[in-house]
Amino acid sequence: MRRATLTGLLLILLVGVVSVFYLNGEYGAFGASASPHPPAHSIPTHIVTGNTTIPYLYYTLKQTTGFVLARAPMGTDGQPLSVPHVVAHFSDDFGLAESDSVIAMQLSPDGRYLAINGARDHGEQVWMFDTQQLTMSLTPPYVLGNFLHWLPGRNGHTFLYRPMFPLGPSAPLDSNGWNPGMWEVDAATNQHKNIAIDVPSAFLIDAAPSPDGSRIIYSTSAGLGLGSDTWLMHADGSNKTHLFSDSSATHAISALFTWSPDGKTIAFERLSDSPTPFLPAGLWVMNTGGAQQRLLADTDGGHGYTLAWSPDSSKIAYVVRTNVSNHQADVHMQALQSGIAVVDVASSHAWMVASTSQTGMQLNLNPAWSSDSAHITFTAANPTNLVIGGMPHYWSARATMQQMQPAVTPIHTPIMTNVIATG
């Protein structure tokens, strides 16, 4: 990536920071990078056929012709009921290079579109899959950038997007030039609206809308070692408020913002502002004004695994690194060993609910809550082979009280191979 201007130099520094903070799974991305990323979540969706609603899980699979999108009916425990069958192929030979990866998949609120954030050696792009027409296309076309979040409300399929670079003369521009901030993009029409954030889009790290869609919290950084600033604004870009700074002295980047379902609390991580990619991070909570900040626990960090609020807004499930003393895991994602932990927000009590010793797998990832906030479904796997994919296994964990003996149970699922992105 060649950049001769000052802006380009800042961009290179920024990508050095944010590419290691990619927000896996459901909630956005932090930069265009050639570095490998962790597997994305499998995504539940519902397709209406006649009078029957069919829930599906989506997967990206590795084939000799590149990546393909596949889906399988979803069971009552959030597990696939069959081997995923292919529903679409990615364009432009995506998946043929070993460095290609899918780093986020998220279903639109109306269930009509599946956003798939892909990374290549020259940057990131978003593929949009129409779950009814079974078609897939780049959205927005002619732009490098990454998906952040779907916007609640609106038409049910508008999302926040971080535009990075135009691709050719057909690229959409703002005011007859390339000076974007944050975009709202309509998945159905490709139409976009720019939201001015008063800094170049390259400085944007993360942005997450409130559950009612009225506000957006976001963070920005000017480059490696410069910390970050966190802001709150109305969804139309008005009433910007600077909440706090993480200065270079604190060596922190605030990101991975996740609003509680009741809209009263925001969880986030403070990640190391360091060229070392996979250092542990801190899980924090604050009120919606940025005050009453509390450190709750240490998380894996760097890999950007999504924080998961329980439906009753009382607990947060997260991925915790279990081999902190192994510094190989600071720089090599294949060396990570991880478990699933839960923290009670009111008391700050945290406990492990699933570990490598319980599942026999090196990675325990992607916690998803049951509707009663008492159980978690997660996946266990060994590191994904970037050439042939991996084999995920589904498990259930009890996640009620710290005093209770952890109990994990394997969920019977068909054998799945060649999986690149799953939950």
Give your account of this protein's structure:
The chain is mainly β. It is 4% helix and 44% strand. The protein is built from 2 helices and 29 strands. Strands 1, 2, 3, 4 and 29 form a 5-stranded antiparallel β-sheet that branches. β17 and β18 form a beta hairpin. The chain is globular. The N terminus is likely disordered.
Structural class: mainly beta
Mean pLDDT: 85
Poorly predicted tracts of residues:
1-52
How widely separated are the two ends?
32 Å
Percent strand equals 35-45%
**Structural Rg:** 20 Å
* Portion of residues within helices: under 10%
**Number of helical segments?**
2
Tell me the major beta sheet.
5 strands, antiparallel
**Overall number of strands:** 29
Shape: globular
In short:
The chain has 423 residues and is mainly beta. It contains 2 helices and 29 strands. It is globular and about 60 Å long.
Topology:
Elements: H1 6-18, E1 43-49, E2 52-63, E3 66-73, E4 85-89, E5 101-107, E6 113-120, E7 123-130, E8 135-138, E9 143-150, E10 158-166, E11 182-186, E12 192-195, E13 204-209, E14 215-220, E15 228-234, E16 241-246, E17 252-259, E18 265-272, E19 281-287, E20 294-299, E21 308-309, E22 315-321, E23 338-344, E24 350-354, H2 356-359, E25 363-369, E26 375-381, E27 393-398, E28 408-410, E29 419-421
Antiparallel strand pairs: 1-2, 2-3, 2-29, 3-4, 5-6, 6-7, 7-8, 9-10, 10-11, 11-12, 13-14, 14-15, 15-16, 17-18, 18-19, 19-20, 21-22, 22-23, 23-24, 25-26, 26-27, 27-28
